[in-house]
Input
Amino acid sequence: MYGCVGMPDKAEELLTQALSEAKRYKINYLIAASFLHRANAYSRAGKIEAAVFDVGEGLRCMRENDYQYVLGLTPEKLEHVLQIAAQHNIEAEYVRVMAQERLKITFVKKGRVVPLLSVHMLGGCHLELGGQVVLMEEEMTPLQCRLLKLLLTSNNMKMEQEAIQLAFWPESPPEKARSNFDSLVSRLRKTLRSAMRQYPVGDYLVLRQGILCLQNCVLDAKIFQQVAAEGLRHAKKNEWWQAGNCFHVAVGLWHDCVDAEAIVDDQVHNFVWDVQLLMIKIASVWGEHLISASRAEQALAILQRGLRLDPTDVTLLRLTYRLHCGRGDRTKAKMLLKEYEKKLVAEGLDSSELQLMISEVVA
Output
């Protein structure tokens, strides 16, 4: 407070006392807080060397104790602290992750702040900057959208120019393919520039030494993959509280997914298919746990999400059938089997195969 009202000396004095007491009683979260708040006070007073030292000590304490939050450190103060760290290469990876997860920003050369470009594929493709939707899929041409999805699903969001040319214009001579590539990238940059306005496109879309890449960018589907995988690891260890927290985040990200059958490129198709399989896995693992925990409504909701993706998944059908029967709702159980049978008939299964498949559900 004293630092904010132009009394940095008083702020430094009190924070130094607080740091001494926190060290005396070995209260690590207060040690981290005291260092980082004092760093802000030092910075406001122009004492950059002292601020840099405190930022280093405070962030090291946070990282070693796996802290994500500090008492009283507002987003503005946190950004300032992390920017000092970025400018002096302090705890670089920890700072990068915290800036992205807590503030939705990143730092580039000399600690310049760049808002993360957030791309959504789960529930209609669109781009966000600073929490605002800046571009919808329908505002891009089909070729622009296809290129963007290829980049998003590539390793580290990078693709060689030649690989893109081969994917888009396999029959064209190299010179023509290169000209088409240059034209497509130029049009995509123009579309992005118009949407991003005050944000430089060069912070996000870069062609360097024959490699086109998206940078300072996050994809909701990849966040979903990370959180879902973490939840499944916890579930495997029967750590259901932690697993449930992860699954809640993953399901919250899931609104819908791109229709895999409508995708041209194998790379994008396989990525989307893997994401869908992961959602189905969550539905079966978490749904079974919720049933065993007598949380029928929640179990049914998650199972139905999985069945919307794959109405013929035997595990999901078996769990849903068991849930309906356990609640005494035989009508819904029979309807479930009837719908399943219709889908199997449509796939061309004969009567003996039908009976075998249905027996797996009711077993």
